[in-house]
From TrEMBL:
<dbReference type="Pfam" id="PF12833">
    <property type="entry name" value="HTH_18"/>
</dbReference>
<dbReference type="InterPro" id="IPR050204">
    <property type="entry name" value="AraC_XylS_family_regulators"/>
</dbReference>
<keyword id="KW-0805">Transcription regulation</keyword>
<protein>
    <submittedName>
        <fullName>AraC family transcriptional regulator</fullName>
    </submittedName>
</protein>
<dbReference type="InterPro" id="IPR018060">
    <property type="entry name" value="HTH_AraC"/>
</dbReference>
<feature type="domain" description="HTH araC/xylS-type">
    <location>
        <begin position="150"/>
        <end position="247"/>
    </location>
</feature>
<keyword id="KW-0238">DNA-binding</keyword>
<dbReference type="InterPro" id="IPR009057">
    <property type="entry name" value="Homeodomain-like_sf"/>
</dbReference>
<keyword id="KW-0804">Transcription</keyword>
């Protein structure tokens, strides 16, 4: 996407999803692994891989589908969702296809009213979007009931800069591999492997926001090098790491975020900048 696409908004990244709320402009055709949910406070114009165009207020764009933003909107939500999450699988099961008209039809329950509420905390906004779509919200709430799973989630950030294995984490918290794998899927709605990947992306973005180079951020987050980090962010979001960081500007966590053990971003105030 062009550098001027993201402006005047805020964003967050959490394991399983990434949110941006702000001005969105033209974007050339691209594709990415994350499901993309668009809600605009007004009309936007989208184009699918066959060149068909549609003006709409909202859309659900499936994973790996080529698409372009022909005309954006000054106040738009872009929500990227892990397709392997419980929520992502439910959206896929709803039958979203490769036609831009059907992308818009799949999002017909998403209206600008979702953006008009005063509480624009990321978790609340995303849960409202998923609620309107009638899909599971656990990948957002992340409220963990099992203490061993909480231990595992607290342990992961301490080792994320290096290799991470389910066996190592299971041994560290005193539970079997199969049981821990099940807990991630049932309570968080995300597989252990994909949770770790999104946690690495979150750490890398935090590092870039903190002033690190891409190479430093890649190593801090456990990627091989800056090329590896760039490949993963482009494959997941269709964005280079630098643009992803711009789309994840510091945002104060909500009260609910204190209950969320899946990792609220903590970005120093000195990095809050005008874009």
């Amino acid at each position: 996407m062009a550098g001027d696409t993201w402006s005047g908004g805020f964003g967050v990244i959490r394991p399983g999803w990434q949110l941006y709320l702000g001005a969105v402009g033209h974007a050339a055709e691209h594709a990415h692994h994350a499901i993309q949910i668009v809600v605009a406070d007004g009309q936007i114009e989208l184009q699918d891989g066959e060149g068909r165009r549609q003006r709409c207020r909202s859309a659900v764009i499936p994973a790996n589908e080529p698409h372009a933003i022909v005309e954006g909107n000054p106040r738009t939500v872009m929500l990227y969702l892990e397709p392997e999450s419980t929520t992502g699988r439910e959206l896929v099961a709803n039958g979203v296809s490769s036609s831009v008209a059907e992308w818009a039809d799949a999002a017909r329950t998403l209206t600008p009213a979702l953006l008009s509420r005063d509480d624009q905390e990321p978790e609340a906004l995303v849960c409202r979007i998923f609620g309107a779509l009638g899909v599971d919200c656990r990948v957002v709430t992340g409220v963990v009931g099992h203490p061993v799973l909480e231990d595992a989630i607290q342990y992961l950030p301490t080792i994320i800069s290096g290799p991470v294995s389910l066996a190592e984490v299971s041994a560290a918290v005193g539970i079997s591999d199969s049981r821990l794998r099940h807990l991630f899927a049932s309570e968080i709605g995300l597989s252990f492997r994909r949770y770790v990947l999104w946690l690495r992306l979150q750490r890398a973005v935090e590092s870039v926001l903190g002033g690190s180079t891409l190479t430093e951020a890649a190593h801090t987050a456990g990627f091989t090098d800056s090329a590896h980090l760039t490949n993963v962010t482009r494959r997941t979001f269709g964005l280079a790491p630098s643009l992803l960081a711009r789309a994840v500007s510091p945002h104060p966590p909500s009260e609910d975020c204190e209950k969320v053990t899946v990792g609220c971003m903590d970005v120093p105030e000195r990095h809050n900048r005008t874009r």
